[in-house]
């Protein structure tokens, strides 16, 4: 092929192949914990969750949009599969650790019981961030296999040492106004905003690591 644009054309062809979607859906399925879990997430919920993720990648959904849909999801986990993210885990502390690691590239778990010895994060940071997930509600539907995720509008996270309720606060940023709002939606908007320095860098690092075998960081 003597076409000077043959490389660009080949890349376009490869991007449209189903295998491209399969690979990235598999990688994100691992990060987002798409799996059947006995007595928590059944096979139907798992398949709905996986199909939602695969369709989003196949449609080239921007990652900021996908993350907002995921973190702000509400409704039944069969009708709105993104809610399965909150069916799989119901501990606000673990939700905070998962979100910071997957979407921000930050390991926050060390700050659960002491200020991080090697990073800037404190116990206040840990429990204030976990407070964004304190009001996630769950109830059953007419189908006993289905779980409905909703904003309870109540519930707090207590600091391990002081036992004080912690107000939701972004990492290394301001304390937002969450009164009358779904805290998860407020958090998702901040995570995907230009004011957050970690989101885009973390995603770029994941892509870099996939193609080159090691992350930049």
The gist of it:
This protein has 217 residues and is mainly α.
Overview of the molecule:
This protein has a three-stranded antiparallel β-sheet. 45% of the residues lie in helices and 6% in strands. With 217 residues, the protein is mainly α. The protein starts with 5 loop residues before the first helix and ends in a 5-residue tail after the last helix. The model has no long low-confidence stretch (mean pLDDT 95). It is globular, with a radius of gyration of 19 Å. Helix 4 (63-71) runs antiparallel to helix 8 (183-191). The protein has helices at 6-15, 18-31, 43-58, 63-71, 84-88, 92-104, 123-130, 183-191, 199-212, and strands spanning 75-76, 136-140, 147-151. The chain is built from nine helices and three strands; from the N terminus they run ααααβαααββαα.
State the low-pLDDT regions, or none: none
What Rg is obtained from the alpha carbons, in whole angstroms? Answer: 19 Å
* Strand runs, count: 3
- Overall shape: it is globular
Please state roughly what percent of the residues sit in beta strands, choosing from under 5%, 5-15%, 15-25%, 25-35%, 35-45% or over 45%: 5-15%
Largest sheet: 3 strands, antiparallel
User: What is the CA-CA span between the terminal residues?
Assistant: 39 Å
Helix content: 40-55%
The helix-and-strand class reads mainly alpha
Strand order of the largest sheet: 1-3-2
**Mean of the pLDDT scores?**
95
Number of separate helices:
9
Element order, helices and strands? HHHHEHHHEEHH
């Amino acid at each position: 092929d003597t076409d000077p644009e043959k490389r660009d054309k080949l890349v376009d062809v490869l991007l449209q192949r189903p295998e491209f979607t399969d690979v990235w859906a598999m990688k994100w399925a691992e990060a987002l914990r798409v799996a059947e879990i006995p007595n928590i997430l059944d096979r139907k919920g798992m398949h709905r969750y996986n199909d939602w993720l695969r369709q989003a990648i196949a449609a080239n959904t921007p990652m900021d949009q996908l993350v907002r849909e995921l973190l702000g999801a509400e409704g039944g986990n069969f009708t709105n599969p993104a809610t399965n993210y909150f069916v799989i885990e119901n501990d606000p502390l673990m939700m905070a650790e998962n979100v910071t690691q997957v979407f921000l590239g930050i390991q926050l778990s060390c700050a659960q019981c002491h200020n991080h010895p090697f990073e800037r994060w404190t116990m206040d940071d840990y429990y204030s961030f976990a407070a964004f997930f304190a009001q996630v509600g769950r109830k059953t539907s007419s189908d006993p296999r289905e779980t409905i995720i909703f904003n309870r509008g109540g519930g707090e996270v207590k600091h391990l040492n002081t036992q004080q309720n912690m107000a939701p606060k972004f990492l290394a940023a301001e304390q937002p106004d969450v009164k009358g709002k779904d805290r998860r939606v407020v958090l998702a908007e901040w995570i995907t905003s230009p004011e957050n320095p970690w989101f885009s860098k973390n995603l770029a690092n994941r892509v870099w690591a996939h193609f080159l075998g090691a992350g930049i960081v």
